[in-house]
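Notebook B, p. 112. Complex prediction, attempt 2.
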Amino acid sequence: MTRLAARTAALVSLAVITIAFVGPFLWVLLASLQPDANLTAKPTFEFSLRNFGAVLTWDIIYRPVLNSIVISGATALLTVVVSGLAAYPLSRYKLRFKRHFMLTLLFTTGLPVTAIMVPVYSMFFRFNLYGSIPAMVLFLTASSLPFAIWMMKNFMDSVPVSLEEAAWVDGAGWVQSLARVVGPLMAPGIAVVAIFVFVGQWGNFFVPFVLLDTPEKQPAAVTIYTFFSQYGQVAYGELAAFSVIYTAPAVVLYVAVNKYLAGSFSFAGSVKG
Amino acid sequence: MTSATVTSPRPAGSLDRREPDRPVGGALRRLLPLFPALVLLVVFMAGPILWSVYIAFTNETLTGAASVNSRFVGLGNFVKMFGDEDFRNSFLLTFIFVIGSAVIGQNTLGLVIALLQRGRARAVRSVVNGVVIAAWVVPEVVAAACWYSFLAEEGTLNEVLAGLGFSQDWLYSAPMIAIILANVWRGTAFSMLVYSAALSDVPADLLEAASVDGASGWSRLVHITLPLIRRSIMSNLMLITLQTLASFGLIYALTGGGPGTASQTTPLYMYEQAFRYFEIGYGSAMALVMLVIGALFSMVYLRLIKADA
Amino acid sequence: MRRAMVASILAVAVAAAAGACGGDSAEKGASGAKEIEVLYKVEPTWPHLEKMLKQAKTQYEAAHKGVTIKLTAVQGGNEVYYTKLALLNRSADSAPDVYLHDTFQVNADVAAGKLAPLDDYLKTWPDWSSQYSEAVQQAAKGPDGKIYGVPISTDTRGLWYNKDVFAKAGIQVPWEPKTWADVLTAARAIKQKVPGVQPFNMYSTKPLGEAATMQGFEMLLYGASGGTLYDETQKKWVAGGKAFTDSLAFINTIYREGLGPKPADAFDPKLGDKVGNWFAAGKLGIGLDGAWASASWKPGTAVKPWPEWTEKMGWTKMPTQNGEAPGAVSMSGGWVMAMSSYAKDKKDAFDFITIATNKENTLLYSLGSGDLAPRKDVAADPQYTAGNPSVKFWTDLASVTHYRPAYEVYPKVSAEVQKAMEAMTTGSKAPDAAAKEYADALPGVVGGPDKVLAGS
């Protein structure tokens, strides 16, 4: 019965790994529900939604989350459109510098964003863009693009060209072909890219902190950071409640595309270019 | 950073070709869809990067006299850097962090989880996937809060270990281990997804046949599975190396580089120089060195992939 | 072609920005109406300055028709504020007209020409000579002798102690230590007789930043014979010396004998908050800290008020090393309202500063923050002393106080001091070894060996 033994061993290992991954979450979940939370995830029998009530105010939650939705949403939308367009020639045509271009993009994904914030900041001032949410969205889009173009190109590669040929026969140009044939076929892929970008920006603290001027424009990532450093010793429960509310949208979005997620990480051949 | 096979399981490397029955338009027209992306990348990425490269060779600062009168200092910043004990310390820590949390931690754990999940019931896979991915999706600041509370002196881990007499302040006594664990926790999902996808492309009949021939699980893994997914392994290693090399937020929020400089990796040291002491010339020089290191790593991985192809 | 493209995309972005962001840029360009932008910091636990500036804005706008005050807040602590201000000050367009400024950052900005001297305006403002003492007037004096800011707060430093803990340790109150040895004796007595209580607290690590250098190290150094970081007569930085080594040795004793915070707490950037809570809980004996510490207990300003503090807490001067004259030491810093050299309407901007720092507004701020008031009329106001019996003591410390050598390189010198203190905290080096390392590093930090004087 070695097979059964192996099976049991695998299941036990998975259980251990799962428990280890759940561990750090425990405190946040428990503390958010306990009125007198401290740093230990030690449940008492006292549960209440008071912590949530305390943080659900316009200044602490609603406005920052709304800002986050606007910033991350606009960035995701723009990134999908621009990277979708860019992926088309990269996927469909033989281009001379394609391999170099793709490798450069890949390399850019590992760029420390702190390294370029000073020049970006200077540029925003020179062109009077400091504090402008639309301008920051353009920058965030640019920083998300390398990654998004890679994903888009690989999704697009998997749509057989033969399907497009019928459209070409009908006299459709690349615009129609992209919009009517390729786009719909890679809809799950587009959703993955959009959500990837959205969630990435949802947690982005540094860029809005540097590029936006007033607290009214700051997204939740900046507000929670301030909250964390100011109330860190005082209101654990509220901090935990804030964390739960702030994290929920990101998790929900991932659950929504979970089905396609696994498929979108197939790598074989992609780096070969 | 990722690739996809949504509608077709076949890797798509062979699609490069001209459209058949179409008049060949000018190169410009074909490249037209690339333009919005190029403009954004040139304006918001290439421009600032080039500017960074330039100021890496100056004594530019954010405040003080040098902020209005910066001058070219040649390789001065780089000479200073290699004589700077704190920089060398940060460099070593970055190396440990990348090897420990990415190359060993995330990569191995991701592969192990993906292997263990093969052939498991759907419900089991959903639970494991869900938990691992949740750790990945959580915003950095929240991840740091989770780990802070987990490792702090009055934290959950010590509560669990109290009976064993191990209790201590982990963030103080073992800051590198703390940030490595936190980063493994946060980043394993990515490797797991990559390897799950790669493993699904390994033909089951091949493994079946080897099994019939009496190959043990271990030898099937080493002789069949791993060679088949080798390219995925290298690609994954390259991506997680680059990301971990640049990792800033999690460490900053968790230990702030401390105690002292015990967990101050180069991105944190760079941040301190540029945004705390306002030495942006020096900070940019460090960023440049990091970029070169990242490029070197990438070239090694790419060479390995190519040799394999 | 590429340039045209860059220009056009930026133009689009600018248009979009102007449309979407409440028309900031349009507002500034509007004819006739003037706007003065005021930058300051605000934290959820520190709203006091915002309250004061909002009151000042209302007063100012009522008196100056056609001029609007635009209050721009930076959320976060000091480090965050310095960074944001430095970034904003990089260009004339983004620089605020008037801003809150830490006195120790003033000289760097004077060197860069970012600040406007106020001397000509101050002459026309009678309060300046009548309400600000000569010492207070120096708070934001540049290397050129000109004044670059009007103080909104000042501070002094000394020792706080918990009387309950002292009673248990059998130490007589009021406690008046005359030497460093007296301080150590009291701490040792607490350690011996009151288990579970931290005898002494000081800040000694980099995460605590300037609090470590100023409340911690300089409170020792400037009380040791000949101790200073900078020789004013020779205009040189002092490398080490006996006073420096002795100060490190004091810190070393604190940690080696287990009289100070646990290592993990010593490195916690939030140690300052913890200290307030520990005193209230009777878990701490003595704290080398600042005048403002009572703000964390005072009802009305505290997150967790502890009204009994006026009974339970004692405060006393930090003695000099061996009781050298004048017998006690204090360090002072504080914040000023400064004016940008880029400000277009300097007269209006200065008028706003005078309103922000008038008696009523300074009082509002001092009552909230617990900071010492720089104005004589506020210091004499019964409301100011009413809620806080310690305030007179702290204000009087001005007679023995010192200012930091806040020159342009000071923040980097301060970082080197913190490094030496950390070595004491962890015990990784002996005091003389750490002092030598400081002396070796100093020339590189201050710009050459010709700016350094060997310590004696």
